[in-house]
Design brief:
Elements (H helix, E strand, L loop, with lengths): L6 E2 L7 E10 L9 E11 L4 E5 L8 H12 L7 E6 L4 H6 L23 H13 L5 E4 L7 E3 L2 E4 L5 H14 L3 E4 L9 H7 L3 E6 L8 H18 L19 E6 L6 E3 L4 E5 L6 E2 L4 E6 L9 E4 L4 E7 L3 E2 L4 E14 L4 H4 L9
Parallel strand pairs: 4-5, 4-6, 6-10, 8-9, 9-11
Antiparallel strand pairs: 1-2, 2-3, 3-5, 7-17, 8-10, 11-19, 12-19, 13-15, 13-18, 14-17, 15-16, 17-19
Helix pairs in contact: 1-6, 4-6
The protein binds zinc ion.
Zinc ion binds next to loops.
């Protein structure tokens, strides 16, 4: 297969902290010999495992970009054993447009793997991750949230894998991330996912859904930051950090609730267009057969709303966002509660987040 047109401006094998770009030539009306410049940070000290941290796979999800921008600007090589590769805005054109897909080719990066070196811009980005960055990595953390059309309880997630040992390693890393919820996630269609590419390459992989609505909150960003540090510590890449200089996360007695999505009855899909009334909030307990949503006819008064009932009991883990819904939208996801109160592994590395940025 032909080589990728993407050229990194960093040396992945050099020690120290490097901030550069993955440079993808892109000729267009506004720049004849232009390039898409995807920011990348490499922090390396000696031999050790490699962790690849990604955000902005979808361009309207913000916890990953915020937490990874923070980490990239503060993590020092002296704090690392091995290598950390940080790409906070994977689908950079989509991120700059604030949209899920790329404005250049409408490509959904997380449906574009393994990609093509001679394909669309989005396919070229996928191909570079598939053939150049994945082989460098032992651990991969891909930070997602709900974007503009979904909202989630904050969870880290893994998939059921054919290799039980690999799945065990992924589960351990998910618990080390230590989100309030930990999900065994069901994909309705796993073709083209970055997740699938990483898992098939035999790596330890954790994904997340940390909120949504096309923005981030204080809490969801805190979950992301703690999680990234927990993941790095679990991988053995984060050396002990010096105390001071940043706000502490403090709560060393954190726990996570294990959730499961065993089959398609978790999903409620809208069969109507209209005005959405969710009858449960995220995290609420749901009983099978209970009304979880009503959809009102948005074109007239005097018509009773359509009721949507839960097809299983559990916890409301995801919901449509914002208030209007269209046929085919996911209205709600009800997940099984497997176990509550599982202690999160904490250590010196995760109890002190990255150094606070300079304040003005
Ligand atoms: Zn996403």
């Amino acid at each position: 297969m032909r080589a990728s047109p993407i050229q990194p401006t960093v040396d992945f094998n050099a020690d120290g902290e490097q901030h550069g770009f993955l440079k993808l030539p892109h000729s267009h009306d506004g720049s004849a010999w232009g390039a898409v410049m995807i920011p990348v940070t490499v922090i390396r000290r000696g031999e050790g495992p490699t962790v690849l941290l990604t955000g902005g796979n979808h361009g309207d999800e913000y916890e990953g970009p915020i937490a990874l921008s923070r980490l990239a600007s503060t993590l020092k090589a002296s704090e690392v054993n091995g290598r950390v590769i940080i790409v906070p805005f994977m689908n950079y054109p989509a991120f700059r447009a604030g949209s899920r897909t790329s404005p250049i080719d409408r490509g959904n990066l997380n449906r574009s793997f393994p990609g093509k070196p001679d394909g669309t811009v989005t396919e070229k980005i996928a191909d570079y991750f598939q053939r150049y960055l994945l082989p460098l990595a032992d651990y991969v953390l891909d930070l997602h949230a709900g974007g503009r059309t979904l909202d989630f309880v904050p969870f880290a997630a893994i998939h059921l894998l054919p290799d039980a040992q690999q799945q065990g390693r992924c589960e351990a890393a998910m618990r080390a991330f230590g989100a309030p919820y930990s999900m065994r996630m069901l994909e309705l269609d796993s073709v083209g996912l970055f997740d699938t590419a990483v898992e098939e390459a035999g790596k330890v992989f954790v994904s997340t859904e940390l909120g949504g609505g096309g923005t981030a909150t204080v809490e969801s960003v805190a979950v992301a930051l703690r999680g990234v540090l927990g993941f790095l510590a679990h991988a053995g890449v984060l050396a002990a950090r010096e105390h001071g200089g940043g706000e502490t996360s403090g709560d060393t007695a954190r726990t996570t609730t294990l959730l499961d999505m065993p089959d398609g009855t978790c999903f409620t899909t809208s069969e109507h267009d209209g005005l959405l009334e969710l009858c449960k909030d995220l995290g609420d307990t749901v009983k099978s057969g209970e009304v979880i949503a009503r959809i009102y006819d948005a074109s007239r008064t005097g018509v009773a709303p359509v009721e949507y009932r839960a097809r299983r009991s559990g916890l409301l883990a995801a919901r449509h966002f914002p208030g209007l819904v269209q046929i085919g939208d996911t209205v709600a996801v009800v997940a099984d509660v497997v176990e509550r109160g599982i202690p999160v592994a904490t250590n010196a590395a995760t109890s002190v987040p990255v150094t606070a940025p300079v304040s003005f």
